[in-house]
Amino acid sequence: TVGAVALDQKGNMAAATSTGGMTGKRWGRVGDAPVIGAGTYADNRACAVSATGWGEYFLRVGVAHEICARLRGVKEFNALTAESDGAAALQPEEAEYIADSVMADVKDLGGDGGVILVTPEGHAVFSFNTTGMYRGRATSDGVNEVAIFGSEDKVSSTP
Amino acid sequence: RWSLAIHGGAGTLSRDAMTPEKEAEYEAMLQTALDAGAKVLADGGDAMDAVKAAVIIMEDSPLFNAGKGAVLTWDGDAELDASIMDGRDRSAGAIAGVRTVKNPILLADRVRTDSPHVMLVGEGAEQFALEKGFAVTPQSYFITPMRLDALERMKAKQLSALDVDLKFG
Predict the structure, then answer these.
(1) What single-letter DSSP state applies at residue A154?
(2) ipTM value of the model?
(3) How many Å apart are CA A58 and CA A65, to the nearest integer?
(4) Rounded distance, CA B120 to CA B110, Å?
(5) Could you tell me the pLDDT band of residue B3, with boundaries at 50, 70 and 90?
(6) Axis crossing angle, helix B47-60 with helix B20-42, rounded to the nearest 10
(7) Residue A93 scores a pLDDT above 90
(8) Which residues of A touch B8 (CB under 8 A)?
């Protein structure tokens, strides 16, 4: 599976995902990628998400929409309280926490994989519960990095 | 301010199975895809164009499980799925089970822009592709030795097709 998420200079966001599914699939099996809400979601109010992994679990959790919905809730709460504490903008730690939390939900059900997301504030976030994820991010702030492995020791059989 | 993130799948190789040469090959292709999307954004282009630019490069690379080099079904075919969504208006397009379209992400986007629907599957999606001028790409384009080997290894474990589909809830 491959995917991309982006925030442009006008503040608009987009998400895209493309896949061949799983080796040996039959019966017209469809995994996460082509299902809006599970593997792909974009909403200027919240974030843009693309996923990879055991699609059935992403379908059951509704991963991409779940992350966007939680982020939108945080942003709305921050906006409500901004007048008192001035902290309306989403912090990268909040986005990472929410992405990790939703991926933990996938893991609890027995699934694995990962997500990429960008936020309206320009944060580019990864979360995965596999050994690694082929990934990259670039921002106007000068970030430009690609990587494969992470620090976890679980190996996925997901293609 | 702009921002871009890409992925090329998760977990196909353990650290032990990854050679330095292979790792460099993957990283170079990821960088190429990242650069393509980043250029669109740095030049003031739309997020939608940026994600398509990045995904097309990975679909065209045999390294990743999408487009050319996609994994194979039990019957040895490439069967492709894709989706795309625009955060401006939450317009979305998706296709599934397509076998003849070189860049499925572009067909998903045409579903978004040129059909009244969100998701088309199988023969219907391919008929839509033909009507919109997409070239018919032969299966031989998508199938690579690496994916054929993977399917053969799976079948050599004496799994039945039923075993492959047992799981997941």
Answers:
(1) P
(2) 0.94
(3) 10
(4) 11
(5) very high
(6) 150
(7) yes
(8) 1-2, 134-135
